[in-house]
Amino acid sequence: MxxxxxxxxxxxxxxxxxxxxxxxxxxxxxxxxxxxxxWSASISSTVGYAYLLGGRVDEAVALLTEAIEQANATKSxxxxxxxxxxxxxxxxxxxxxxxxxxxxxxxxxxxxxQKERGHEAYVLRxxxxxxxxxxxxxxxxxxxxYRLALDLTEELGMRPLTAQCHLGLGLIGRRAGQRQLAExxxxxxxxxxxxxxxxxxxKKAESAKAQ
Length: 211
Prior knowledge:
By secondary structure, the chain is an all-alpha fold.
């Protein structure tokens, strides 16, 4: 169960959702057969996030909501900040911005209380993503939040998330018409995604550079 969960998470981080789902399906089946309730919230949230990245948003929200309920039922706080952030990202993609911000701010509070700095970096990136898509765009606010996330990912050696922060900063620059902001970050993102074999994310960076 844990081996399949780890393999699934690796592919989710890379953005290879078609490779992640079979491992995660095996993980869920092993969890069900073994009745390992203590792992239910972590597994449901990982599968839910994989569904989200794969475009299955409604299923993702249902599973991520279930993961929060499972965590509350088992009083499992480990990783709870990331579960809240995943749900925040999911509802944001559904256009429910205020709800997304509530989940994100709660996730930030929990991550700091639990001293889960890696999860804090993920939450900061989510807050930056939300800020970057607001109308009208507040370039300074969105950029500042992305830089907080970027600094933390670099300190912790979280290279996939570092590359995603560079991509986000590059997209802000593109949207604001600031090539001096966009180009260095898009170039850095492309190079990092290429080095890590993250082809899904590399396509996004290369597409942004070509615009």
